[in-house]
Q: What sequence folds into this?
């Protein structure tokens, strides 16, 4: 691509300059067209050069992605792999892990799967050692693994909060501690995928909000002491993303009604970002060494309003909480694969969340009972 973009940009620039010299004393909007064309060509050229530089910087690098067996983590692993990096991914489920590694290998990526529960400190520490051994070093570590339970406060137990903290705070903490020395040697990057849910506490997500807030502060605190260490720390704050994760979420209270609102929010095109775009932004931010990345316009706006008027956002969240389903007399609990609503409401939700369903199929998410097993996404563009 570079072969034609540089001459095209130069030719467009020359054309714009010659038009400018022959310009009438009073510029008309049409006189700006050559400049716009030259600017666009230069933009394409710069972006091509950046892509080439990115490929050069990542070729042969060793990347560990926790929770890289499905959803965003798998997409991040593919993105790093596409630029020539070797990747190690981890998850708890052996079958899913094998499928993810086969999918990555099918795309020509050097990939390793390590079965690991990051909630266990010993496993989290040995994950780093094993990844470094298999990859021959460690240049990037992405703390991405996460769990989500959706339901009213009354249905959340202490064990649920402890589980969220173990996976999303203590896991990244132990991984970061174990990886810091190696990243310091390689002058590498530590990337943490936090969430807008840790910045603005939304209703019916209590364990998640607590753990994500703690995880964000962990990443920021590490960044605060990173200067001179050789490690670049990147805190990522995604808004809603279409990763297909709604299928793996556990819904409690009135599971079908909880599934409805959650699947709708997570899957609406204007509100959520595709996993592909999110992964591209994360890899780009890692290569450029950006410290803080907020991924969707809605998340950016929410954080800005919360910074200026936290009382207002807290009030808005409590209003939303009041509108969400109340605890039924006999609360139930079901994973998203079984909580899908039937009948006409189900068809409406399904139609509105079609893009997220598609993402679930491409990104190795659990399949619904009675449907085909998930694809490893090897043929996905
Ligand atoms: N989707 C969104 O809209 C959104 C928005 C903001 C932030 N985020 C954050 O982005 C990250 C990825 O989200 P996602 O939507 O891709 O989630 P996802 O589809 O649920 O994937 C979670 C990944 O983490 C792994 N995992 C869960 N518990 C683990 C444990 N104890 N040890 C090791 N691996 C574990 C899962 O594999 P196993 O189940 O096989 O272990 C899976 O690979 C998460 O941190 C999430 O909180 C997501």
A:
């Amino acid at each position: 691509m570079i072969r034609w973009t540089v001459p095209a940009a130069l030719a467009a620039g020359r054309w714009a300059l010659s038009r400018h010299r022959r310009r009438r004393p009073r510029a008309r909007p049409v006189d700006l067209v050559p400049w716009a064309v030259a600017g666009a060509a230069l933009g394409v050229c710069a972006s091509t050069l950046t892509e080439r530089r990115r490929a050069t910087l990542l070729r042969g690098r060793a990347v560990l992605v926790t929770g890289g067996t499905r959803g965003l983590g798998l997409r991040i692993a593919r993105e790093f792999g596409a630029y020539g990096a070797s990747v190690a991914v981890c998850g708890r489920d052996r079958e899913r892990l094998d499928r993810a590694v086969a999918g990555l290998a099918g795309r020509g990526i050097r990939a390793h799967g390590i079965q690991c529960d990051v909630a266990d400190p010993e496993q989290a520490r040995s994950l780093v050692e094993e990844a470094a051994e298999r990859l021959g070093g460690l240049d990037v570590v992405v703390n991405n693994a996460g769990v989500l339970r959706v339901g009213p406060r009354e249905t959340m137990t202490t064990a649920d909060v402890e589980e969220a903290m173990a996976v999303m705070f203590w896991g990244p903490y132990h991984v970061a501690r174990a990886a810091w020395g190696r990243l310091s040697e390689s002058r590498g990057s530590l990337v943490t995928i936090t969430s807008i849910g840790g910045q603005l506490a939304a209703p019916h997500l209590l364990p998640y909000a607590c753990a994500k807030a703690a995880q964000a502060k962990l990443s920021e605190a590490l960044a605060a002491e990173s200067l001179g260490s050789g490690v670049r720390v990147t805190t990522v704050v995604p808004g809603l993303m279409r990763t297909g994760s709604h299928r793996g979420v556990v819904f409690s209270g009135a599971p079908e009604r909880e599934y409805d609102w959650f699947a709708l929010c997570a899957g609406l095109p204007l509100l959520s970002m595709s996993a592909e775009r999110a992964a591209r932004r994360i890899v780009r931010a890692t290569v450029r060494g950006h410290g803080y990345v907020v991924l969707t316009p809605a998340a950016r706006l929410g954080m800005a309003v919360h910074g200026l008027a936290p009382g207002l956002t807290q009030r808005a969240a409590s209003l939303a909480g009041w509108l969400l389903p109340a605890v039924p007399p006999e609360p139930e609990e079901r994973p998203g694969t079984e909580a899908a609503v039937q009948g006409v409401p189900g068809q409406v939700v399904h139609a509105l969340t079609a893009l997220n369903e598609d993402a679930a199929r491409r990104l190795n998410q659990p399949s619904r009972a009675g449907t085909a097993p998930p694809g490893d996404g090897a043929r996905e563009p």
The mean pLDDT is 90.
